[in-house]
Amino acid sequence: MYGRARRLQLAHHILYSMSIFxxxxxxxxxxxxIHANEVKKHADLPGVGKxxxxxxxxxxxxxxxxxxxxxYITMCVLSSKFWRLLPIISTLYYxxxxxxxxxxxxxxxxxxDFENNLNLTLVVFIVLNLLIIAVYQFIRSLDEKSxxxxxxxPDQ
Length: 156
What we know:
Keywords: Membrane, Transmembrane, Transmembrane helix. The chain crosses the membrane at residues 14-34, 54-75, 82-100, 120-139. By secondary structure, the chain is mainly α. The chain has one domain (2-147). Helix content is 72%, strand content 0%. It has helices spanning 2-42, 49-59, 62-73, 86-104, 118-147. Helix 1 runs antiparallel to helix 2 (49-59) and helix 1 packs antiparallel against helix 3. The two termini are 22 Å apart.
């Protein structure tokens, strides 16, 4: 009877942690490294420029805001063990980027250049991984402190 509920709770907890982590990553990377170039690229396109720029602002702000509102109104606490999955997820994403560049020849991000600047790409990869883990742990500790509840957490 409780097995199904426990599995659903575990699935919710994993998806909750992933949504927070992935939205933090998207917001940080997009606004910190990509936004200015994307606005320049799309702002003056006939027929879509202003709408596309509005879209860029919306899709890189609203989902993260929703995640934080969800976190605020939900008593679920981010997992203290989830950080171990972060390097695996980012490695899979980098592998996907590598394959995409191999097949299309188009680089999605200026800081990922496997052919001409592999060293910089690897340094960025390592630094982003460390930053993502640090930010996740910081937000996790804020999340835990803000909810101040004396119940058993699913990951302990």
